[in-house]
Structure formats: C-alpha cells, structure tokens
Amino acid sequence: MTEPEQTGTAPCVYGNPPEGVILGTKGAFRKNKTKDEVKVILFFLITFLMSVVLTEQHYVQDFINSTWMQRYQSNISENGLTLLWSTIVSIFTLGGLVGVSIGSTLSVKGTLLTNNCFSVMAALLMGLSAFAGSFELLIIGRLLCGINAGVALCVEPMYLGEIAPTALRGAMGMGTSIFLTVGIVSGQVMGLEEILGREEYWPFLLATTCIPAFLQLLFLPWFPESPRYLFIDRGNDEGCRKALVQLHGLAGSEGALKDIQAEKNNLVGFKARKPWELLADRSVRWQVITIILLNAAQQLNGVNAMYFYTQYVFQQSGIPTDKIPYATVGTGACECLTALTCGLLVECLGRKVLIAGGYILMSVCCILFTLTLALQHVSPVFPYLSVACVFAFVLSFGLGPGGVTNILTTELFTQTSRPAAFMIAGSVNWLSFFFIGLVFPFIVIGLQHYCFLVFFVVCSTVAIYILAAIPETKNKSFLEIQNEFQSSKKKTDVLPDEAEALLVSTSL
Predict the structure, then answer these.
(1) Which CATH number fits domain 26-222+273-507: 1.20.1250.20, 1.20.1090.10, 3.80.30.20, 1.10.472.10?
(2) Mean pLDDT score of the chain
(3) Among residues 214, 342, 399, 468, which is most buried (max CB within 10 A)?
C-alpha cells in the first residue's frame, strides 16, 4: 500500500513523488490516496473501509493538529504528525495479520457474521473521534478495520468456493474481486466534494463504513452454511443435504453430495491441518509454493507504483488538478468493468490463461510505461501514452491476477488443508503489503521511473512459473485437482533443490 505525497508541510509517509509532480491541492491529493487502495484484494466492505479514510487525509491531519493544540497548547511537530498519520495508515496491516490468524476459528458463515462486529465498532470509533477530540480512536478504529479485512480475506473466498457448483466456482470466486472494485469506486465517489468530501463531513464519511456491515448482517443469516464444512468437518449429513438443496436445488444436490462424499472418503484419517503442518507436508509442497508466490506477487507486481505515478501522468497530459479525482473514479470504474469481464470469462478461458495472460500484459506495460516516462518532455504525445499505460496496467491486473489468485488458493487444496492454506496466503499477502509500503520509497529514490524494470522482472517471472507449473483447474473437483498435482509431482521433483529454494525465497 504505497501512499503518495501529502499536502501541507508534513513530509510524505512513504516517499517523494516523481520529478515534476505538482503538490498542494486537496483534490489531487485525494485522488492518489483513494486509488492506492486498489491493491487490497477484498470484499466491498474492506475496500470501502480503506478508501474512505484515506480519501480524507488532509482533513484528518488538520484534526490531529487541532486536537494536539487543544491538549498541549502547541503545534505538533512535522515528525510527530507524520508518525501519527503513518500509524493510522499502517496499523491497518497489523490488524490484517491478526485477522488472518483468527479467520477460521468458527464455522465459515459464523466467522463472517461475527466479523461484522469489528466493522461496526470501527465505524463507531472513527465516526466519534472528531466529536470526542481523540485521534487515538482513529488508530483503534483502523486496527479493527484491519482485523475485519484480514478475517474476510481469509474466509470469504473460501466460503464462495465451497458453496459454488464446480462449473461456476470460478465465476463465483470472482465475486470477491468484483465487489472489491465496487468498494473502491464507492469510496472514491463518496469522497468527492459534492458528496461527503468536505471537511465538516469527514467523520460521517468514516462512519458510513458500517453500512456494508449492516447489509451483511441483514442478508447473510439467510444464506446456508458451507456444505463441505458441515459434511467433512462436522459430520452433519442432514445439514449438508439441506444446504445443498438450498444452493443447487433438488436435482443438482445429489451430484454435489457425491463430490463431497468422494472428497471425504479420500480424507479419512486426516484432521484439519495447522499452517505449520501444511508448510512441512511435502505432498502439497508445490501447491504451497504456488499460493505463496501468487499472493506475494499480488502485492509486489507494481500496481502500487503505477498508482503512485498516476497524478503525475494525469497532470502531464493536461487534466486540470481539480478534475483529477474524477479521472480517478474513471480508473476505478474501468477496473470494476474488467473484474466483471473476468468473471464472465473465467469459466470460458480458464484460470491459467487469465492469470498468466494478465501478468504477461503487465510485463509489457512495465516496459512501455518506463519508456513513456523517460520521454515525457520529448513530445506532447508521450504523456497521453503514459495515461494509456496506466489504464492498460490496471485493466491487465483486474483481468487475471486481481481475481484469479483467490480462486486458485481455494481450488488447490482439499477441505482439511484449505483453512490453513488461506492463513498462509493471507499472511504472505499482508506481509507483502507491508513490505512494499516500506521498501517502495527507496526503490523510487534509487531508480525513479526505472523502478518499473524491477516490476517487469517480478511479473514476467510469475508468468513463466504459472505457465510451467500450475495446471488448469477449470471444471475440476478439488480431489481431481489434488490428484493432478500428485501425478505431476515426479516431473516437478526433477527441479534441483536450489531452484525450489529460490522460488520460495522470491515469493517471500
């Protein structure tokens, strides 16, 4: 999660903008803050929680200043303001790690329902922070937001994958990515000055994050529990049958039940695994390596860097500063459209084509974007080409890597291993999230716009790995996918140990 330069006098939390970026306008600032949140790959509630608070950085920092003055009769120092703001931003990541670790402690649906309590409490604390004159409430609220996001990232894709028919599992799995982008666009729109983007409204804007939680509390109880969880984990045959009839109808429930029974028979004698047990199990070694690599790449592929440069390329292309927030909404809408398109194509083209193709296109965009940034002042056409590269990169990400990663995490494991796999994947994702925010400023300082050559290496390496090592999972049961990995185990074992170690270290 890379944060762009802030307005005012306090220094940027995560680094300086590219040369030529014009600072000092709240509209331009808001544009970058909301759009950077696109990398959090989650549900509508999660992205809404994140984008609305970062939309109002300028107002939140003014609030911190005024609160400090009231308490201590002096202005807060630049370093102090930066520290408090960076704490508000980064504590979300800490909460996400906590949420991942507790994500599978209850039943699947029970966890999702309970998780809304974190969102409601967070909205209450953040909404009351201004009235209470306490920026500490913002910090606690952001921590609770992170816990909510971590739990949802771990459980929701797993729930969608388990309740979906095999033929529609990819399309339903894309629901997470689709509503992620809807959440991003919603946060951007709500943060416009015409709606709740004014100084006097920022506490209400933060409090609106409880709306998606209330909607989920209203509708989710009517949804069935995961049939696989009921049948395999709880041994509740009758409950499983009722859930399958509710999900698939009477005619389709028998086939789904046979699939679940076959999976359970294959897991006789196996207990639900812990993450460390899954990491030590050589029989699922390549599945674990795959989810680690894909989830790390989801954060390290350069999307954060691309959004860091969008303000610059928009300004260079002649878009007025006060119109940049609307251009940002346009990029969010484009990604939302791409996620929806991916949902329509995932069962037609398959997972492997979409995610590998997405990374290949992102690799090409990295090269083109580097060239157009280097030639910004050569011709008036190059700023427009940079804008085109921004849109192409975002669309390529949404076409495959943004949505298919969670689907593969669901499909590569059977019931006893899946919760642990999501904990591992979620932990890697959040740690990579933190790592890119910590390291990216130094990459920009050292390489400037040539930093995209680093991301080119990441994207191209992941694309090669996907093409070489990951089988197509479309229209296959979880058991069939596991057997396919087992059958190809001898082929993959011919890789030297050094190559395997390199893959693991690269993903981490």
Answers:
(1) 1.20.1250.20
(2) 76
(3) 342
